[in-house]
Amino acid sequence: MENEKLYLEIINNLYEGVYFVDTERKITLWNSAAEDISGYTAEEMVGSYCHDNKLSHVDKDGRQLCLFGCPLSASVIDGHNRKDEVLLKHKNGYRVPVKINIFPLREEGKIVGAIEVFTQNSPAVYEESLIEKLSSLAMVDQLTGLANRRKLESFLDYKLREYNRFATEFSVVFLDIDDFAKFNNVYGHDAGDEVLKSVSKSIRLSMRANDLFGRWGGEEFIGVFDIKNEHEAVLIAEKVRVLIERTEVSYGELKLSVTASLGVTTVRSGDDMAKIIKRADALMYKSKQAGKNCVNSDGQQ
After folding, report:
1. Among 7, 42, 190, 277, whose Cα sits 20 to 30 Å from the Cα of 106?
2. Residues 165-200: pLDDT tens digits?
3. 116, 153, 219, 220: the active-site residue
4. Is 16 assigned a catalytic role?
5. Is residue 102 packed enough to be buried (19+ CB in 10 Å), middle (13-18) or exposed (0-12)?
6. CA-CA distance, 27 to 23, in Å (whole number)?
């Protein structure tokens, strides 16, 4: 107990921010320097999870690390030390550039968590980060508010690398709104835009934190979902189909109904981005041929 008090006193007197997480990425310690650098007190942080994204780390390319590969999580998984330069979001909203060092925490040879040590990289801070604004413009579809094609491609690339390294399964859903041309041709392009926005909002509000759904182009959408098995992939795709079917689009005094055809595939050994998207697209086309408003999967081929 005396040793523990001594270690805590040393940690709280460091100039570097220090925090500990367990294997679930729950924060168990947050030192005084971490409070000073981030603006968050230990009471606010201890017991929360790093993927709650209060610090909203972005890398030098403006990518959100909780979406595109958390180095802290990776160190818990593979036991390797990591270093990086990132920007964290201060409690007051501005960005702080920091250097981070991550070390796995072991007890009797078993990884029980990780330690992140971070130091301010520069005295400069950025009001409502220019990087964040540019990242938003570059990675978000402006009409729907969903991820755009560029962000989907980046996320898929990350998920494929994660699969090749850790065998973490995921599925890809390719979705096309049925008879979309009729909304534009009969009611006008504003109606088509309302359909896209309403469908996107229904899906966005039902997404899990680790999944991503975005607009691929036109009336086509792609979803990337963590799964445990192929059956779960089909259930997720069916849930999305039903959500769309139950979406009522208000356009003036009209209430427009909308459906979609979906194809869902599970990642396979040897997949690259082109292969997995082509497979999901082909399955979506089978749904169109089968009468629309349905799901086709790998198991139905």
Report:
1. 42
2. 889 999 999 999 999 999 999 999 999 999 999 999
3. 219
4. no
5. buried
6. 10
To the nearest whole number, what is the mean pLDDT of the chain? 86
pLDDT for residue 126: 42
* pLDDT band at 296; cut points 50, 70, 90: very high
3-state helix, strand, coil in the chain (%, to 5): 40, 30, 30
Could you give all domains of the chain from N- to C-terminal order, each with its CATH number? 2-129 (3.30.450.20), 140-300 (3.30.70.270)
Which pairs from 85-89 meet CB under 8 Å and 24+ separation? 85/59, 85/60, 85/121, 86/57, 86/58, 86/59, 86/60, 87/57, 87/58, 87/126, 87/129, 87/131, 88/37, 88/38, 88/55, 88/56, 88/57, 88/118, 89/54, 89/55, 89/56, 89/57, 89/129, 89/132
Question: How many other C-beta atoms lie within 10 A of the C-beta of residue 130?
Answer: 11
Rounded to an integer, what distance in angstroms lies between the CA atom of residue 221 and that of residue 216? Answer: 5
- What pLDDT is attached to residue 127? 43
